[in-house]
Design a protein that fits this description.
Enolase-like, domain 1, seven-stranded parallel sheet
Length: 372
């Protein structure tokens, strides 16, 4: 079996008005992502998704399309899609970074592998170590305090037991927002915050001291990526648990974060790590250092969310039971590109036992919403 073609499809889907996101990175109203279709010489088809967000990973839908079409495809055509190590090696040899573009190709190859074996991808990753139904936290944008409080209360009523609040904007507004949410959800609901690297050290330490009485479970990416010396200092001086996200794209960054005692947990997901295989290696290394991992999100569609679910279900050190993550991306969007969308009920997202990733893409809908 050989890769015969790799096709790329830039698509735009708006977020539901009430789910549009505000964070330290600005407003997020629409998702411009890249779907890919890998076809083998014997007719098998696998799908992938590059969940690109320029202000987060630096990748754009057009950049991802260009690098897949013009750089990755020439070195992958004719290769066995089941030879994941060689696929990774070839992509890494011709381009650094471009994590989400690489992940989309790896995702599609896992889909082909599962369909060829008539088994779900999590079986190929070592088998299920937890339920196919995953519980998520709810991520709340950096809204005005009264709006944040109202929406947080609605999500708790819908069954969520963990709420994440976006901060990293104006520190006074951040503190007011978090306090309003804590008051609205009560003391029993877990409350986390995510600055997306939007604070400097002084802003972070002052905000965290003012929020000591809000009983935060964990603080996600309080400082800009790469600022390891101050992240370690903040962890020591604030007394808060630190979750590293934007600081951890590859194995070297994960190693440095852990060995330099900068964090208490890592956020991983296939897109950010350049594929499920690489994400699993980081999770295994973190487990050897007793550092738990959880899942993050770029508000993926069904294809990307399915890949995340297979990763979670097959990876023991994705400790979502203690550190809930995000697998709700399709819920945020106005419509799904899947013929049978993932089942999302409140905080619960359920994966089927279908072969491969388990997602059948509605290509007519994809073409109808293509970016020109």
């Amino acid at each position: 079996m050989q890769i015969a073609s790799i096709e790329t499809f830039p698509v735009r889907i708006p977020l539901k008005p009430e789910r549009r996101m505000i964070s330290a990175l600005g407003r997020y109203d629409v998702s411009d992502f890249l779907l890919i279709r890998v076809t083998t010489d014997d007719g098998l088809v696998g799908v992938g998704e590059a969940t690109v967000t320029p202000r987060w990973s630096g990748e754009t839908v057009w950049g991802a399309k260009a690098i897949i079409d013009r750089v990755f495809q020439p070195v992958l055509l004719g290769l066995d899609p089941l030879n994941g190590d060689e696929i990774d090696r070839r992509m890494d040899a011709v381009a650094v970074d471009n994590w989400f573009a690489k992940s989309a190709i790896e995702m599609a190859c896992w889909d082909i592998a599962g369909r060829a074996a008539d088994r779900p991808v999590y079986d190929l990753l070592g088998g299920a170590c937890r339920s196919l139904t995953v519980r998520s936290r709810f991520s709340l944008g950096a809204y005005a305090p009264e709006i944040a409080a109202e929406r947080a209360a609605e999500r708790v009523a819908a069954g969520f037991d963990t709420v994440k609040v976006k901060v990293g904007t104006d520190p006074d507004q951040d503190v007011a927002r978090v306090r309003a949410v804590r008051q609205a959800i009560g003391p029993q609901i877990s409350l986390t915050i995510d600055a997306n690297g939007g604070w400097c050290y002084d802003q972070a330490i002052h905000a965290l001291r003012r929020l000591e009485d809000c009983d935060l479970t964990i603080v996600e990416q309080p400082l800009p990526r790469g600022n390891l010396s101050e992240l370690r200092k903040l962890r020591e001086e604030s007394g808060q648990k630190i979750l590293a996200d934007e600081s951890c794209f590859d194995e070297i960054e994960a190693h440095e974060l852990i060995e330099q005692s900068c964090c208490d947990a890592l956020t991983l997901y296939p897109g950010k790590q350049g594929g499920i295989r690489k994400a699993q290696r980081i999770a295994t290394f973190a487990a050897s250092r007793l550092i738990p991992c959880t899942i993050g999100s770029n508000l993926e569609w069904d294809v990307g969310t399915a890949a995340m679910l297979h990763f979670i279900i097959a990876t023991p050190n994705l400790l979502i039971e203690s550190y809930p993550g995000d697998c709700l991306g399709p819920f945020y969007h106005e419509f799904s590109i899947a013929r049978q969308p993932l089942k999302i009920e409140g905080p619960l997202t359920t994966l089927t036992r279908s072969p491969g990733l388990g997602i059948e893409v509605d290509w007519e809908l994809v073409h109808a919403h293509a970016l020109s």
